[in-house]
Every structure is written in structure tokens, then in C-alpha cells.
Amino acid sequence: MSTESVLDTFTGWAAMAAGAALKPYEFTPGPLGAEEVEVAVEFCGICHSDQSMIDNEWGNARFPFVPGHEVVGKIVRVGDQVRGLKLGQRVGIGWYKGSCMHCSSCMEGTHQLCRTVKPTIVGSNGGFANRLRAHWAWAIALPDSLDPSAAGPLFCGGSTVFAPLLEHDIKPTDRVGVVGIGGLGHLALRFLNAWGCEVTAFTSSLSKQEEAQRLGAHKVVASNDSAALKAIAGTLDFLLITASADLDWNALLGTLRGKGRLHFVGIVPSAIPVHVFSLIPQQKSLSGSPVGSPTHMATMLEFCARHQILPQVEIFPMSQVNEAIDHLRAGKARYRVVLDASR
């Protein structure tokens, strides 16, 4: 085990109660695990999931609570059973930072489906701090050609929208729609355009039309316009839902061709009222997925390096974390917010 840069106490920013502003906070990490790496945080994205956890919307936050699960930094310590990583290597850590490594899901490479998978910010301290620890399998090497200041959101939002392309065998000849042009959706447009697909962006605000096209959309459709949805009925192979809003799901299903799939990665607030007759006659499917596996993330980073795809980010000093969170809460982020741990 490396003894370099050993710190008995980590420093970070924590909410002391649900919805509270973050304050400086010190905590003791305990001994480094044999299969863990310790990362000196350089940058950390702010995700809507961080906001939800700060507010304890899901009822599983533990206070004091240190958010942050879109971490980029360099490895400063390694456990004596760490494999494939080394000191000084720059890595990223996303929503998960560990899994059992022996169940059927882990053994078949779908670590994100492990029943005991360990979220980075549920029950432990996250990346709004100077250091973060993770199991070596979940610390994914960042290609040198990708800007570390912008790469953090790839490990959560990027992985979430990239994994379905692999899982559902999306082809370059497919016609694919993306619903919601935000933190997830803007990356999905970039990925799918580089993938070779014909890409349709669905947005409730047609003022985003020019921006959606700049991000990679070939067409833009109003998601709340029933006539516009009817006009493209039966034309799409795959429809990726990145929005967090209740929409006319039967109308959106109607845009799909035979064997088309409506796939959710956004957390919509209400149950999805879909009649089976919207699915059965043309063998359509409804599905959803979390972030990708470590292998999916490594594949995504290779793809991003090849095509120079990065999130569109706004960078705040870590010392201004509360201002950055307020910026996100106000819906002003375009499209992801990243904290610089050096400031």
C-alpha cells in the first residue's frame, strides 16, 4: 500500500440538514481498503441528483451530507490489492464507487446492477471534498486528450445516456429521438450525431431549436405539440427520455416504428399511463436504465476522445459551491456545472 500523501482527515463541504446551505466540514475516512484507491479531487460536477440528496427528496440522505459524484482527480494512494491503476493516474468516479465483484451481475460485467452496489453519495461522503475513495474497478482512467475540467459529468450524465446505445444495439442507420435538451439530453445529441444516427430533438421550448441543432440534432420537434407528434408518427427506432417531466407518453410511443423502444433515463415524477394496445400491435417496448458499467464508461471515454465530445460546462470555484447550487436550482445551468477544487 502506498504511504504517499496520507491524510488522517479529509475536508469538504456538507449540508448539516435537509435543504441547508453547504458549510466547510472535516471527516475521518478511516483506513484505506485493500482494493481501494484514494483520489485527490481536481474537479467535481454538480448533478440534479446532488440537489435531490441535499434536499433529502428520496429519504436516504445522511447528515452531515457531502455531495458530489462526478469526480475527476489523480490517484494519490492505492490499496495493496488494486489492479490496473497506478499512482498519479487521472481517473473519474461517478454515481457508483463500489460493488461486490462476485455476484452474477458483477461477474457478467453489469456491475451497476449488483444488488449491493455502493452509491458514491448514499451512506458515505462524496466528491465535494479534497479526497475521495473508490473500489479500483469503479475508478475509470481518463484519456489524456479529454479536458479534465469538463469531463466530470461524463461519469454520471454521460454514462447514463451512452450506455443505452450499447445495451440496445443502436445502429448508425437508426432514427433516434431525444426528449429533453438539458444536462443529459445535450450529451445524448452529441453522442448520437457522432454515432451516425439521424437525430430528432424533442423540446417543450422551440427557442432551443438553434442550440439543439448546434448540439447535433437534425430535426427539432415540440414535445407538447400533438399535431407535430402526429406528423412524425411511425418514424423513429428509438426514443430516449432524458426529461424529468410528465408528457403525453402514448403520443410519444406513436412516433416509434415497429419494434421501436421508448427508453427512460430521466426521472419523471408520475406513473406512466400507457395502454398495452400502444405496445402489442407493433411490438413496441418500454424500458429504463441507470448509469453504465465500468466497461461501458471506459468505452464511452474512448468514443469521446475519438470525437472530442465533452459536456458543455460552467465552472465555479469549490469555495463558491452554494452559489453554484443556486445557479443549478434556478435552472440557469448550460448545461452542467463543475466545481474547481483548487479554488
UniProtKB/TrEMBL annotation:
Its cofactor is Zn(2+). Its EC number is 1.1.1.2. InterPro entries: ADH-like_C, ADH-like_N, ADH_Zn_CS, CAD-like, D-isomer_DH_CS1, ER, GroES-like_sf, NAD(P)-bd_dom_sf. It comes from the Bacteria. Keywords: Metal-binding, NADP, Oxidoreductase, Zinc. One of its GO terms (molecular function) is zinc ion binding. Residues 19-339 form the Enoyl reductase (ER) domain. It is an enzyme of class 1 (oxidoreductase). Belongs to the zinc-containing alcohol dehydrogenase family. This is alcohol dehydrogenase (NADP(+)). It comes from Aquipseudomonas ullengensis.
